[in-house]
């Protein structure tokens, strides 16, 4: 099994080890070469404390309180995910990330369903939001790789 998956399975933690999340619940399951991470957390918008404080005043905090399901498939080297806000129905995001054996992403499919209130956001910012989601996931995986090397 991949070292990343071994570490998640052994520590029974993924998001709790990453600095950008205040984890409320996290459940790790391993079966049939799949590792599933189900979590509820509040995410930070920035790694920088000052910028986080500023952005937290501008953005609805309900948007940052998320439920997620990540499934790492070690046979196919894929990550399937589903993310949505816990308390509001602004959007639901799902996707499949195609990775190499080290879980570096080389291709992806990301889909976001927006509520009617936010449909204008889709027409204006959908590509940028998808890029931001992909970038955040890549950062999380890279940060986790650094953690397990230490």
Shape: globular
Total number of domains: 1
Order of helices and strands: HEEHEEEEH
CATH topology: Alpha-D-Glucose-1,6-Bisphosphate, Chain A, domain 4
User: Structural class, from secondary structure content?
Assistant: alpha+beta
Can you walk me through this structure?
- It is a single chain.
- The chain is an alpha+beta fold and 150 residues long.
- The chain has a single domain (3-149), classed as Alpha-D-Glucose-1,6-Bisphosphate, Chain A, domain 4, CATH 3.30.530.
- Helix content is 33%, strand content 38%.
- The chain has 3 helices and 6 strands, in the order αββαββββα.
- It has helices at residues 3-11, 49-58, 119-149, and strands spanning 21-31, 34-43, 65-73, 78-85, 91-99, 105-114.
- The protein has a 6-stranded antiparallel beta sheet.
- β1 (21-31) and β2 form a beta hairpin.
- The longest helix has 31 residues, at 119-149.
- The protein is globular, with a radius of gyration of 15 Å.
Please outline what is shown here.
It is built from 3 helices and 6 strands. It is α+β, with helices and mostly antiparallel strands and 150 residues long.
Keywords for this entry:
alpha+beta; single chain; globular; 150 residues; 3 helices; Alpha-D-Glucose-1,6-Bisphosphate, Chain A, domain 4; six-stranded antiparallel beta sheet
Topology:
Layout: H1 3-11, E1 21-31, E2 34-43, H2 49-58, E3 65-73, E4 78-85, E5 91-99, E6 105-114, H3 119-149
Antiparallel strand pairs: 1-2, 2-3, 3-4, 4-5, 5-6
């Amino acid at each position: 099994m991949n070292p990343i998956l071994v570490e998640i399975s052994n520590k029974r933690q993924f998001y709790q080890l990453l600095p950008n999340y205040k984890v409320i619940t996290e459940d790790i399951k391993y079966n049939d070469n799949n590792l599933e991470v189900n979590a509820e957390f509040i995410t930070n918008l920035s790694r920088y404390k000052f910028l986080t404080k500023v952005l937290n005043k501008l953005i609805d905090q309900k948007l940052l309180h998320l439920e997620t399901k990540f499934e790492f498939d070690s046979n196919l080297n894929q990550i399937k995910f589903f993310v949505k806000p816990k308390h509001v129905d602004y959007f639901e995001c799902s996707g499949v990330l195609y990775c190499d054996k080290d879980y570096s992403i080389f291709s992806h499919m990301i889909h976001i369903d927006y509520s009617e209130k936010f449909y204008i956001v889709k027409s204006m910012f959908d590509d940028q939001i998808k890029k931001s989601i992909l970038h955040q996931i890549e950062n999380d995986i890279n940060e986790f790789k650094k953690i397990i090397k230490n």
